[in-house]
Design goal:
alpha/beta; three-stranded antiparallel sheet; 20 helices; globular; binds adenosine-5'-triphosphate; binds magnesium ion
Length: 463
């Protein structure tokens, strides 16, 4: 029971005010740990002709950041939000934008709109006076028609329309994506005041820019990493404060650590703990470990099917040692892990579970099996030509696996890096400058005996 016995309706209302486990956050009050990104985006988008691209792992909070910024900056109206699918084309996305940009909920003075749309050169309106426009009546095929149509929105929608183009990476055709690069270039040349905010995985940015190299400087790029600790704590505190509950410090740390910085996991665990409290006959003032574990079990059950499936493929109906190896993989803060360090974690885990570790060659064989499709390819090589480095197929998997390990009473180390400067290894990617170890990190690595890592790095630098 909560707050002296809230009705289910009041409880759900309160819960929804502070937690959004199933959708993006759209307001500054609920967007935590991203203050710097919001300020940077705000400053960047202030310039005419500049747009933004937010990229990062699945579930890290791209849509939330994009929509919150759009709602914050949009004046006179609501921002225009569109999503992309596999089959989306430049034309379909543009049609969608224009349709959403026109306030369709109102009866429309079709004369005014038809004049506007005809001037924009994107087709006529067949609807009669005071009828709504529907999507068959707009057809934007070329980049120049899109520029005219967006220009039109600056009078019809608002002076500066903010447009979020979500999941840009979903668009399969490179050719279609490239047209957005040309669009950005042309919008800049014509000083059109619309602001486009794209979200997607990193790879799609290359093809976006590939369309027009010079559009690169017109795109403010934001790489979203997992949520920093302060943001994680803020979500937790904000949620439980709403119900007048205090969270034990150790539980707070557990939720923050297990989530691995994927805010959805925090929302889920907090939601399930609160539901457990609400459905109990007891009155609660604070959240202890036993409530946390109940909430965690429920949260694990409601994690998305695709993430659960990978873990099931790798472990169900198999020897327990596969679980131990996967848990070992999610130990320590390093996302990219060296085989030697994984086996160290494995031995540590076996010790704490009081089981006999596998011998070296069996460990190697089972570890290799986890890379195979029959095991959901749960582990993949991390650094191309450097064979001893591995990571999870998807970073979001690690949080889920940490939760599963915790469910079995296993305490993993979430905080410490096994490799000094792991963030450097993580940054080896297409969009981040390669950062070798600093002198101090190098010295720490040497002290820890990570010479193989240093040697690898030196080789890499010589290339
Ligand atoms: N900064 C934040 N503060 C609080 N909650 C957040 C924050 N960012 C995201 N969330 C929450 O995390 C979850 C995932 O967020 P979001 O949908 O924005 O991620 P995404 O990166 O767009 O995911 P996907 O790649 O699946 O589209 C949502 O439940 C959202 O409410
Ligand atoms: Mg999203």
């Amino acid at each position: 029971m909560l707050c002296g016995g809230l009705s289910l309706r009041d409880f759900m209302h309160k819960l929804h005010k502070v937690l959004r486990p199933t959708g993006p956050v759209v307001s500054m009050e609920l967007l935590f740990g991203r203050e710097k990104h919001v300020t940077d985006l705000e400053l960047a988008l202030y310039a005419t002709g500049r747009h933004a691209f937010i990229y990062g792992d699945r579930g890290v909070g791209k849509t939330s950041l994009a929509q919150t910024v759009a709602f914050k900056l949009q004046e006179e109206n609501d921002p225009i939000l569109v999503g992309c699918e596999k089959e989306s084309t430049f034309s379909s996305v543009m049609n969608d934008i224009i349709l959403r940009g026109i306030p369709q909920d109102k009866k429309i003075d079709t004369q005014g709109w038809s004049v506007g749309l005809n001037v924009a050169g994107i087709g006529g309106i067949s609807a009669g006076k005071n009828q709504k426009i529907n999507n068959t009546e707009i057809n934007i095929e070329s980049v120049s028609a899109a520029v005219r149509a967006l220009q039109f929105l600056t009078t019809a929608h608002s002076k500066v329309p903010y447009i979020v183009i979500d999941e840009f990476d979903q668009i399969e055709s490179d050719l279609e994506r490239q047209k957005f690069g040309s669009l950005i270039k042309q919008l800049g040349d014509q000083a059109c005041e619309v602001k486009l905010i794209f979200t997607g995985i990193g790879d799609s940015l290359v093809t976006l820019i590939g369309g027009h190299k010079s559009s690169e400087r017109q795109i403010h790029q934001v790489h979203l990493d997992s949520l920093p600790l302060n943001g994680r704590f803020q979500i937790i505190d904000n949620a439980f404060n709403e119900f007048g509950l205090i969270v034990e410090e150790s539980v707070r740390y557990k939720i923050a650590g297990l989530s691995d910085g994927f805010p959805n996991y925090i929302h889920l665990i907090c939601e399930k703990i609160l539901l457990t409290c609400q459905s109990s006959t007891k009155e609660f003032n604070s959240i202890d470990y036993s409530l946390f574990i109940k909430g965690l079990n429920d949260a694990i059950d409601s994690v998305s099917e695709t993430l659960r499936q990978s873990y099931t493929d790798a472990t169900e109906g198999r020897d327990e040692s596969y679980k131990h190896i996967i848990w070992a993989m999610s130990d320590m803060a390093d996302l990219t892990r060296h085989k030697t360090h994984i086996s160290e974690s494995y031995v540590k885990i076996c010790k704490s579970l009081d089981v006999v570790p596998l011998d070296k060659s069996t460990f190697e064989r089972k570890f290799s099996a986890l890379k195979k499709p029959a095991f959901g390819c749960i582990i993949i090589p991390a650094l191309g030509n450097r064979p001893a480095w591995f990571r999870f197929r998807e970073n979001m998997l690690r949080g889920y696996i940490r939760m599963r390990a915790e469910q079995h009473g296993l305490e993993l180390d979430f905080q410490n890096y096994r490799v000094a400067g792991e963030h450097s290894a993580r940054a080896i990617g297409k969009y981040a400058a390669y950062k070798p170890l600093t002198n101090i990190e190098g010295r720490v690595a040497k002290l820890r005996g990570d010479d193989d890592w240093l040697d690898d790095l030196k080789k890499e630098l010589r290339k």
